[in-house]
């Protein structure tokens, strides 16, 4: 597709504008610069899975959780390089959905688009509700009021311009990055200088002196891989920004190539430092390892700091959900796989109707969570994990098929080829398959797999009805 943005629009009489027809069919403004794309990529790899979820992983696997993050991080890098090859071949904002449509088939594009949309709606519901709960740490205000304010503010920011979305995500990510780097430096200081309450006992030997590096056996370490992979969900969001990057051919490869050091520093490095200062036996499920480490160090302000960081992580996720859902709905609509009204853009190039529809569902979800915070809602939330992994599977399959066509000369070669592909992509697919098997074994994660067939059946029936009413839904139009 061409990288030129659409300059001409026409008013539909309701304040929204319709993008003029162009060769690329997108109409977005390329308002995301290198600084913002880099931080979006960094922030996508850091979330509540690390700040809160790592406590459960440490209690299960001990220090070997570090190895689990390193291995999973390597697989994530393979997935991102596969995505990068596709993005440089054809950078579109529909991303995985559009590639699925081209390399697997229209039905695959339909399933991928609607599944990724639902993933972010559900994630947005849970994260904005979590953010509201975090606010009660400082102020005794109704949770629904905080949720309402957060949703409205993020919705408004996403409608103003993609640049404002990028700025919000930049600063959200900056808070998370600063917190982790600060923790690493504090731990390094304790290990070398011996200050704080933990100074007398801190030692790198904690990584192997309390039952060994695999205190509960390799099997328990393998079982944590599902939690580890969940922590990386949303790292692929950088692919959705492709259609709005100022210079995608330069910016996107740089952002993707930083994945290894981001994981090495923010996950592996942070856990090595924390588990060297505080033995793994001091951590418990449901308690942030950062909070536990601060308490061991005797730093009273630690809990408040971590609460603020987790708040920004939740808002960052909700902000990303607002951004991606509107783009996914518009991509589906442009391919006759969703209502045509989702194609409308504002004068600033943002998908008005799609973002509004998604934000409204997020608000309904907050209300449901407030009224009935029981098992039914938990089942819906659990679906987010398997639906997020579906995007990774689609990316890998599309890259394998694209590479085969490019090698045969049927398509132009990407300027950013994935090293070792297609073998590395097959390896990543096998790894994801193993993680899904682990989910089936774990009774706490098994519910995710129950939800997937039901959602697949719903999409199958919807696609059959759509195809009968509109044959264009089964046609792929390269943009």
From TrEMBL:
PANTHER family reported in the protein's UniProt record: GABA PERMEASE, L-ASPARAGINE PERMEASE
Alphabetized Pfam families for the sequence: AA_permease
Assigned keywords, A-Z: Amino-acid transport, Cell membrane, Membrane, Transmembrane, Transmembrane helix, Transport
Biased composition (Basic and acidic residues): 1-13
Gene3D superfamilies: Amino acid/polyamine transporter I
Residues covered by the Amino acid permease/ SLC12A domain: 37-470
GO cellular component annotations of the record: plasma membrane
Membrane disposition: Multi-pass membrane protein
Gene Ontology biological-process entries: amino acid transport; transmembrane transport
Family: Belongs to the amino acid-polyamine-organocation (APC) superfamily. Amino acid transporter (AAT) (TC 2.A.3.1) family.
Disordered: annotated segments: 1-23
Full protein name: ProY protein
Protein localization: Cell membrane
Family annotation (InterPro entries): AA-permease/SLC12A_dom, Amino_acid_permease_CS
Bilayer-spanning residue ranges: 39-58, 64-83, 103-123, 143-165, 177-195, 223-243, 264-283, 303-324, 345-368, 380-402, 423-441, 447-466
Main subcellular location: membrane
